[in-house]
Structure formats: C-alpha cells, structure tokens
Write a structure and sequence with these properties.
By secondary structure, the chain is an alpha/beta fold. The chain has 2 domains: about 80 residues, 2-Layer Sandwich (Alpha-Beta Plaits); about 150 residues, 3-Layer(aba) Sandwich (Rossmann fold), CATH 3.40.50. The protein is built from 8 helices and 14 strands. The chain has a 7-stranded mixed β-sheet, with helices on both faces. A 4-stranded antiparallel β-sheet has the order 2-3-1-4.
Length: about 280
C-alpha cells in the first residue's frame, strides 16, 4: 500500500498540535514533527476522498507552505527507524524499538517495532495514557484497548498486572503490527488482537477500557463503550485537545460516570472516569 506524506511548514509546536488534531479526524494515521515541519501520513487511496477537506483545514489555519509527497510502502520502515527514539515515561517505563539498547533502570520496557501504526509513545496522548496506567490498579483485571494501534497500551497494561485484554483496531496494518509486538513483549497469551470497529466489542464485558482515538470517534461510540464496562470499572480516554475536555466530561458524566483523573501536556488532555453502580453515591 502506497502512502502520501503531507509536509506542512508550521510556526511552532502549538500550530503543529492543532493541525495534528484536525487532520486526525480524517484518515491520516501517523504524524511526525521535525525541524519546523509537520509530516502527516495517509494511504494514497484514502486521500482521494478527503483531500479537499484537508486543504480546507490548512487554509483555515493560514498554512501557505504544504505539499503532498508519495512514499512507496517499502520505504516506510526505514523512514520510521531513522526518526524513532526511545521514550522514557517518568523514569519507570522505556518504550523502545528492538534496535535500541535495553534499559537497566526502568521498571519495565515496551518494545515496539515502528511501522504504520499509531502508538510509539512519542505523542503526548500515548505517554499520558501510559502514565495513567502506571498510576492505576489493574492487577487481575480484564480490559479493552480500543483503537490499539501498535498495542503499546495493551502491552503496558499487561506489564502492570492486567490479566487479559482485547486489542481492537480497524486498520489491517495496525492489527498485524500489534500481533508482532505482542509476541515481542511475551504477552500474546494475554491479549487478543481483533480487526474491526466498535461493533467487535458488542456483548463483551470489561473491567477497564483504554481508548486513545479522537474526539469525534470517542463521542460517537461512547454508548457502546459504556455498555461493555462493568460497574466500578474505569474508562481512560485521550486523543483530544484541552479545548475538548468540557465536552468530553459532559458526555461521559451525563451517562453516570465520575471524573477520576486528568492529565494535560502540550495542549492535549487525558481523562479517566469511574462507572458507578446504579444508585451508588459519589
């Protein structure tokens, strides 16, 4: 599958973050910012249906220097490997690629082969989700990683003691990459990768849910998530900006959940909510 790289000259990290959030509503699935250029990646076939919308977003934010470049699929791994650096999460977890040196000080590592899947730990939302996983008590619990990408969150949850997880993603590249990463991290027996959308979880039950996607998908699929979440369970969400926190809290709390934790980094937010049993006081 051939990909298109959209190169956007940005004025700073804030503009890069805002454009990332806007473009992630379209089928762009990976983003890298380096030396004043935001690079957004999208399958060539998908761009045909949304190029006009992408161009409108760029125009709305005053972008005058942007160009689309075709990238052959066989060059993708070399591109990621050349840019991928280990990610340290509070000195407790190292997210690294197989070609990086192991950590001698971290509590545990998550080894991710960087391919065409979101979730190498570099984005603020992924890092905040890992931080919340570290601060939670998941021992012996059964969870869901919705929009799992590389599987980084499912792997981190397992290494924090979760008994098992379903890892669901709609993208076939993400699904295959997740399988590879589960094996690399020796958690294949505890995580079930699933190719599909929110319909894949119908009728299932979870003690916790990890969903690092984007605002519109989270809000649109919220009822489906909460139908699967057990009473007392925790919902962890990210993939949206600080400006969206109020709308996210309103949508989740109106369904009977209570805000538990929140994190903010670089204009991005991550929240967790507890599902109370019917009639339980806060």
């Amino acid at each position: 599958m051939d990909y298109i790289e959209l190169n956007i000259s940005v004025e700073g990290s804030e503009q890069a973050e805002i454009l990332t959030a806007e473009l992630s509503e379209l089928p762009f699935d990976s983003f890298v910012t380096e030396r004043g250029v935001l690079k957004a990646y999208i399958p060539q076939a998908a761009l045909v249906d949304c190029k006009e919308e992408a161009d409108e977003i760029l125009s709305r934010y005053g972008v005058t220097d942007a160009r689309y470049v075709q990238i052959e699929a066989q060059n993708w791994n070399a591109l990621w490997e050349s840019n991928f650096e280990p990610v340290d999460v509070d000195g407790r977890v190292l997210i690294r690629a197989p070609f990086h040196a192991p950590s001698t000080t971290a509590e545990f590592e998550v080894v991710i082969m960087p391919k065409m899947s979101f979730g190498t730990g570099h984005h603020a939302t992924t890092k905040m989700m890992v931080q919340m996983i570290l601060d939670s008590h998941l021992e012996g619990l059964h969870g869901l990683d919705m929009g799992s990408g590389t599987g980084v969150l499912a792997i981190a949850a397992c290494k924090c003691g979760a008994a098992s997880l379903d890892a669901v993603d709609i993208d076939d590249f993400a699904y295959e990459n997740c399988i590879e990463n589960l094996a690399t991290n020796s958690v294949s027996e505890r995580v079930v990768p699933m190719l599909g959308d929110v319909r894949a979880i119908e009728g299932r039950r979870y003690d916790f849910i990890l969903a690092n996607i984007n605002r519109n998908i989270l809000l649109g699929d919220m009822d489906s998530y909460l139908r699967t979440l057990n009473d007392g369970g925790e919902l962890f969400v990210s993939g949206f900006l600080d400006a969206d926190v109020e709308a996210m809290c309103r949508a989740v709390e109106s369904r009977g959940l209570t805000l538990h934790h929140e994190k903010h980094v670089g204009g991005w937010a991550a929240l967790s909510f507890i599902k109370r049993a019917v009639g339980e006081s806060v």
